[in-house]
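Sat 14:20. Reprocessing the chain from the morning session after the first attempt stalled halfway. Input below, unchanged.
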Amino acid sequence: MSASASANSKLGNPAVVGLAGFGLTTLLLQFHNVGWMGLGPVIWVGLVFGGAAQMIAGLQEMRTGNHFGYCAFTAYGAFWISLVLMMLGNKHGIVTLEPRDMGFYMVGWTLFTVILWIGALRIHGAMALTFTLLLIGFILLDLELLFGWQSLKPVAGYELMACALAAWYMMARTILNELYGRDLLPAGKPWVS
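Finished this time. Tokens:
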């Protein structure tokens, strides 16, 4: 490839894959958590799309200089891989977990999410909404797992379905706005300036 051809080559936006993987895996886990489906699809999609593909998207964000996307996609890719491995380990007696153990695992991710939530408030409204819903979902799961408030599990499930759809909105926005050459799906103003 000539130097001029490589200079004119446009790179794809890795965020679309990261958002797609995050949204689909989150949606499927919540379908399971509210009792609509079994855990099997969550395991495989969590390892491949929510985990590996999202982590690859995060590593590609590094090349674009996007610290937020690099951190978020790589970390939440690792979240999905570790969550699935913990589920498998627990099921097969490799390393068993008590609900409280999972609760503290979720608390760690909640605290991590607070940092990204603060950053998301300055990006745009769609990002702020997605991270606000994610943070609320993690808090609900923390309460359910640490204090045994089982009634919060379906509430968290429905709330995190909204989070997954908000992530997909951002994915659709990136793809459709480029294809149509205009701001077909707006992002909204940052919540904090």
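The chain has one domain: 13-180.
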